Each structure stands twice: as C-alpha cells, then as structure tokens.
Amino acid sequence: MKKLQIFPKQLGMFPYVFLIYLVMPLFYVAQETGIKEMIGYALILLFLVTYRQLYSPLPIKPYSYWLAVQISIIVILSLWYDPNNLFMGFFPANFIGWFVTKKYFYRALVSFIVALIITTIITAIQGLMENMLYFFPFLIVMFISPFGIRSINKRMELEKELDQANAQIKELIKREERVRIARDLHDTLGHTLTLITLQSQLVQRLAEKKSEQAKMEAKEIEITSRSALRQVRELVSDMRAITIADELVDMQQIFIAANISFQIEGESNFSEIPLLQQNILGMCLREATTNIVKHSAAENCLITFYKTRGNYTIEIKDDGIGLIGKESIGNGLKGMKERLALIEGDLTIHTKEGTVLTMAMPVIMKQEKEGISL
To answer: Biggest alpha carbon distance in the chain?
Structure first.
C-alpha cells in the first residue's frame, strides 16, 4: 500500500514545521463567536488547502491562482479579525520565491506588496493597529524574502542540473572507455593475429617439403602468440606506448611474412617527435599494415616520411586493388581518424592506383641549440 504523502518527500519536515505559525490566526478566530467564528475556521481550512496545493508541482497559472487565494485569505483575516494576521504574509512570500520566470515572479511580488500595504493602511486608518512601528521591520523582511528564496531555489536547481551533467559525463566516460578498449584491441591484436595467420599458412606449405623450416616457423608462431598475450596484459593495465621506430620493425616482419616488398624513404630520425604523438602514429601505422595485408592484395608498399617546420607527414602507398567496391571507411580507418584528431592531425585517402594513406599533423620539433626549443 502506497504511503500517503501530504508534502513532497524531498522537503522533509520543513512544510510541517511552518504550520506552527497558524496558531496565531487560530487564536484570534477562537475569540469570535457565531457565524464569524465559523467563517474564520473555514478560511483557515481553505488556507491549509492553498498551502498544500502550492507545494504540489503545478502549472504556472494554477499556481498563481492558489497564491492569489492565499493572499486574499490573509487580507480578510487581517481586516476582519486581527491586524497581526498580516504576519501570515511569510507564507506567500515563501511561495513567490518559487517562481522561475522573472515576469511572473515580479508580478506576484508587486501584487503581494500592494495587498499588504493597502491592508496595513486600512487597519491604521480604522485604528485597529495601535503600534505600527514594530510591524514595519517584519513587513520589509516579507518583501525582501522572496528574493532570497528564489536565489536558494535557483542554486538548488543548478546543483541538480550539475548532478545530472556529472552523471551524463560519467556515462560518456564509460562509453568512451569501451570504445577505446575495442579500438585498442582491434589495433593491437589485429596485426599480430594477421601475422600468426600468415605464418600458419606458411607452416602448412612447408610441413611436408621442408620440415626444419616449418619447425622454425612454428617457433615464430609461438613467439608471436606470446607477444600477443603480453600485449593484452599491457592493454588491460594501460595503453601501451609505441614508438614509430618499433612499429616499423614490426611492419617489416609482417610484410616479409606476407611476401610484400617494403621500403622506407625520407626522415628516419623520430626522436624529436613527442612520445604521445609517436604512440598515436605508431597505432595508425599498425592499422594501415593490417589493412594492406588483409585487403589490398598488394605486392609493394612504400612509406615516406616528410618533415617541415611545425608539420609532419607520413605517406603509405601500396599497389593493391584499392578501396573500390568496399566500404570506404571501416572500423580501422575510422579509428585512425579519431586517433589523429586527438593530436589535431588529419587522414586523407586516395585510391586511384592502389591506395595512398596520408597522415599529417602539426608537431613541435625539439632542438637543443643554445637553450632554444623550436
């Protein structure tokens, strides 16, 4: 059975504690007799209804109507029963602060101020308020308090939005981490498994004719598989750092196993490139190697390195069948684009004669000369 909830649960005991201020109007109504007393109790009961409704999630117009009813009850109780009932103005002052829209907030505040000032003047003229001076400070507090309430509510709303944003950020981080792991598994293990496949095919061809060479190739498969296992362990612990020079050695090993001629031209000193950029370029070279071996049917591959002031370019060219008739951007090439984007790099693809992948990125070349870095 669902528990009856009079006021919103998140407000705790605050709405109930505030009801203690109804002792004063109840006291003044109790001093009356007859029909006036009955009307007084009816007004307080209606006031309780407005109090409950104003704590409910209402559209702005019904909320304004209930607030107007509450202010009207305070005016009637102050004029017809006792001027001290004006202290009940702290109730609507609190609810006025809950208006989010400035237009409705100021409209309600002005109406509230006018109603209380007119009521105060009428009671003073009628001589019902013996000492008005003690009441003015409370009246000023009533008029100012909606601003404080509104400020608190805005801060609470901002904190709520911040919590929601943080939750979304955490979810995006988890999602990005899953994508990163999938991409790293693809890039790290893809070329290794390709090498194992090529070596296994070679062993099958050599098993009957050249048993000794087949044994050597089988040993290489064991070494490669152990390397793959090590890579998985490194990937689980952290993203493995890859240098361009190390990756070129691995590429040469794979191309030899795949009977693809492999040449390197251009800049061969990579020590000036920061390690982070080397790591990303190394992963991209690894993916390019896997694509060439698996899909290109190429016989030759040429990698050329260009270095200019502030820029670095790597061109990977093969004489294979290109990407004609295939999906132009697969997971591997998409991953290369995403990685290069992290270092403000770019990937272009040309497939007119074979395939040409061009990776370009800005890079700060470090030169130790007279203490100056360029």
So the answer is: 123
Residue for token pair 């598994």: 185
Report the candidate in 357, 316, 362 with the shortest Cα–Cα distance to residue 337: 357
pTM over 0.85: no
- Angle among Cα 98, 100, 102 to the nearest 5 degrees reads 115
Residue at token pair 């496949």: 197
Within 10 Å of residue 267's Cβ, how many Cβ atoms?
16
- pLDDT tens for each residue of 146-200: 888 888 888 888 888 887 877 777 777 667 666 666 666 666 666 666 666 676 7
CA distance 120 to 75: 9
In degrees and rounded to multiples of 5, residue 110 shows phi and psi of -65, -45
Residue type, 283: M
Report whether 348 contacts 358 (CB < 8 A).
Answer: yes
Token pair for residue 331? Answer: 């997971």
Rounded alpha-carbon distances, angstroms, from residue 295 to 285, 303, 323, 331, 338:
15, 18, 9, 14, 21
Q: Which helix (H) or strand (E) holds 110?
A: helix 102-125
DSSP secondary structure string for all residues of 166-207: HHHHHHHHHHHHHHHHHHHHHHHHHHHHHHHHHHHHHHHHHT
Q: How far apart are CA 217 and CA 339, in angstroms?
A: 34
All structural domains of the chain, each given as residue ranges with its CATH number in brackets, are 9-134 (no CATH), 258-374 (3.30.565.10)
